[in-house]
Amino acid sequence: MKLAVVSVVVLLVILVAWPVSAGKKDLPEVGGYGGEEEEDDTNSWFPLDNLLSLSYYDKICPNFEKIVDTKVREWTKRDSTLGPALLRLVFHDCGVTGCDASVLLDHEGSERKSPASKTLRGFELIEDIKSEMEKSCKGLVSCADILIAASRDATYQLGGPYWPNAYGRRDSKNSYARDVEKVPSGRRDVTGLLETFQSYGLNILDLVVLSGAHTIGKANCGTIQSRLYNFNATHGTDPAIDTKLADYLRRKCRWDSETVDLDVVTPVTFDNQYYVNLQKHMGVLTTDQELVKDPRTAPLVKAFAEQPPQMFKQQFAVSMAKLVNVGVITGEDRDGEIRRVCSKPNSKSY
User: Which GO terms describe its molecular function (predicted)?
Assistant: First the structure.
């Protein structure tokens, strides 16, 4: 009864959240698709204080959004797994030193070379977009902005929400593998996850909502083998996993190089099935299932599981708009630049 009451309160909080549409058709004209100029009201849309703007590319690169969208469609048509991969790439970028494209730098000792980054994908697509962008808007569009826009478009194409992005980020000149430890792993408890999210300026609702990105994509078996074969050093399986799912995962994950769907019911559909799965003990990662066990997050999981998918999608847009503003570098920061090639700083700094 207590949990049900809390869920109602949670829903009321979500319902009064920032009303971001789940589709382009309901949005104002933004970010390069045209529309009349209006007073920049970026701060009312984006709670984190920075110098980004919804209309940043409207004049200097009016085809910015169109180029990104076209390229994402071309690539994901050939490989549908790139959509979830781009979303994961953004999490790994923003979750380290901020949304500064540091994850794209490819040199010895960079984030990209960290063992935790070995399964990241989508780099070639971002480089292709950047190459095309340089033909139309040479030296004006950052790799950080491209990554943010591409992940949003890929999410939308998978049936997820569309949210307006503010632009004007600069790219980091540095990238260090040691910083990747900041990215939440699949084995942390809710307290550890929440501490990390709070360090980004995000809250417990954002934690639960952004975890819902696991409604699409795959997990590397290496991240869950201990849960399947040696849970808490018992040489057994985590008893919190649904029995049938555990049997399936043990058969599938005999080798750590294999992958499994994070949402085993609707793996290619952006919906709220992830939360329904958690209620049935079908969370693949330890961190996923912990959300149901912790009394701080369980009511939110219950709320999103029981309400229409649109509720989750709308809040996902809100939380993503917050995430992609974490730790940005802008034109006033001396340690940023607009890279000519996304995998290399303009001048060698390592």
Answer: heme binding; lactoperoxidase activity; metal ion binding
Q: Domain tally for the chain?
A: 2
| Shared-domain flag, residues 127 and 63 | yes
Is residue 221 a part of any domain in this protein? yes
Q: Is the pLDDT of residue 38 over 50?
A: no
> Distance between CA atoms of 181 and 178, rounded to whole angstroms?
6
Q: What is the pLDDT of residues 200-235, one digit of tens each?
A: 999 999 999 999 999 999 999 988 998 998 887 787
Residue range 246-274, pLDDT digits in tens: 999 999 999 988 999 999 999 989 999 99
Tell me, yes or no, if 92 is annotated catalytic: yes
Residue 222: inside a domain, yes or no?
yes
Whole-angstrom CA distances from 127 to 28, 118, 156, 216, 220 are 29, 18, 21, 24, 25
Contact in structure between 219 and 284 (CB atoms under 8 Å): yes
Q: Which residues are annotated as a binding site?
A: 93, 96, 98, 100, 102, 111, 184, 214-215, 263, 266, 271
Q: What percent of the chain has pLDDT over 70?
A: 83
Domain hosting 173: range is 22-35+49-183+324-337
Q: Exactly one of 92, 107, 235, 281 is catalytic; which is it?
A: 92
Q: Which residues are annotated as a binding site for heme b?
A: 214
Residues 77 and 97 both lie in one domain: yes
Task: Name the 3-class secondary structure at 141.
Answer: coil
Q: Please state the residue numbers annotated as binding site for Ca(2+).
A: 93, 96, 98, 100, 102, 111, 215, 263, 266, 271
Structure-token match 């923003």, residue found: 94
